[in-house]
Amino acid sequence: MDGWVMMKVLKRFIPLIGLALVIGYLSYHALHGEQGYLNHLRIQAQISAAEAELAEVRSTRQHMEDRVARLKADGPDGSVDVDYLEERARAVLRFAHPDEIVVQIDRGAQPEYGG
C-alpha cells in the first residue's frame, strides 16, 4: 500500500516535472540559442562597430573626394586650384624653389627636451 501511495504522488507531479523541464529547455535556448538574447547582444555590438567603421570610411572618402575635386578643372572658369596643385607637387615630387631652405622632420622620432 505504501507503493500505491507513492505512485499516486508521482503521477501527480510528473506533469509538473515535465513542464519544468520544458520551461528550462526553452529558457536556456532563449538565452543561449542561435537567436537568443546573448547572441542578440553580440550582434548589436558587431553592428555598432561596423557603423563606426563605416562613418570613418565615409569621412576618409569625403576627404579624398574633396582633394580630387580641388585637382579637377570643373570650376565655372575651368581652372585648377593652382595653390593646391603646387602644394601636392612639392609634397609628392619633393620639389622646392632654388631660394628656399628645406628642413626635413622625422615624424617618427620623439622630441628630446633638455632639462
Keywords:
68% helix; mainly alpha; 115 residues; rod-shaped
Concise summary:
The chain is an all-alpha fold and 115 residues long.
Notes on the structure:
The chain is mostly helical. It has helices at residues 2-32, 37-71, 82-93. It starts with a helix and ends in a 22-residue tail after the last helix. The model has no long low-confidence stretch (mean pLDDT 84).
What is the fold's blueprint, element by element?
Elements: H1 2-32, H2 37-71, H3 82-93
Envelope shape: rod-shaped
Return residue spans where pLDDT drops below 50 for at least 5 consecutive residues.
Answer: none
Strand percentage:
under 5%
Biggest pleated-sheet summary:
none
Distance between the termini: 98 Å
**What percentage of residues falls in helices of 4 or more residues?**
55-70%
Averaging pLDDT over every residue, what do you get? 84
Number of helices, where a helix is a run of at least 4 consecutive DSSP H or I residues: 3
Radius of gyration: 36 Å
